Predict the 3D structure of the following.
Amino acid sequence: MTAAATAPAPAARVRLPVLPGDAAVIDRAEPAPHQLIDGFARRVTYLRVSLTDRCNYRCTYCMPDDGSHEVTPHEDVASASELGAIIAAFAATGVTRVRLTGGEPTLRRDLPDIVARVVAIPGITDVALSTNGERLLELAGPLRRAGLHRLNISIDTLDPVRFRAITRRGNLARVLAGTELCSSLGFRAIKLNAVALRGFNHDELPALTSWAWERGITPRFIEQMPMAGGRLFVPGEFLPAAEVRAILAAGLGAPGEQLQILRADDDPGSHRGGGPARYYLLPSRNDDTRVGIISPVTESFCDDCNRVRIDSAGRMHACLAFDDAVDLRSAVQAGTNAEDLGRAIAHALGDKRRGHEFTTLGCGAPKKAMIATGG
Ligand code: SF4
């Protein structure tokens, strides 16, 4: 009997659902909305737009390494003008902040053009980008000239070996050099994003924080969220926000000192974007350094949710934690005007749930992967 005959069957290629998305519903009996308020009286002012679900990294907590993440075919990816029309419709309904994400948005050759388009949309006052930083050396200048206001750069470790292990392809030196370059280009704010993982970088959180502070960058630590059906979530690696605070206080504070939370009204600094991060300081430092913590699983912020997402195929996801989506791109391609698009968006928002059902054991995960909607 040959070896081939007994080899286990290869893992069935599971197609991560690139949802077709429900058709947009345009109810002309409804007035064209000037504000987007969901069924829980939460106002949407912040839009996250995933420009691609492709990436030049393979981060272990985001991208399945079995090749099962099937990217959106090029012909299904929304063009810069289609995205522009969708974002303009959101702006007409009171959205003021836009974050461009991915996958890895710097893989889009038309990224500077998209940035310039979004910055020019009336009503949009803040345009930000989330990136893994690998291409900043080439792109930071053109993006700043296109009008980009803010940057969030994902750096989970300062150890080149660990960096290679978690990204599977990344070059830490390039990312750090690109980040340093950005510090000199006059962005409104630069933030460092790190997913906090037990047994991977929990011992590096103080060092990452100091590295960022020394460069005028605001560090933020993120609880891992269960996505992709929970397949990439390892409960033993989950590091809750409370432990992150304790590690930072022990590593950076005076003996016995705790991190002190800052209320948004008391701390209106440029580090505050539109997102859910809670910011803290160490009183003993007596300076304006801040550290942010994003704690969706253990200290949910769904009650204050102010955002929705668009994926690279132009579908609206009212909530990150659920798979339902509405196809706005087809509506644009059908020549739908901004007012009617606003009606479709308001209608889709009506189905938004109160919040996620994530648990620290990885339950409550949608089928879609983080890479499909850009976090
Ligand atoms: S899980 Fe959904 S409701 Fe909660 S903050 Fe995220 S997008 Fe908003």
User: Anything to note?
Assistant: Confidence is low (pLDDT under 50) at residues 1-18. Residues 68 and 273 are 34 Å apart (CA to CA). The first helix runs from residue 3 to 6. The first strand starts at residue 22 and ends at 23.
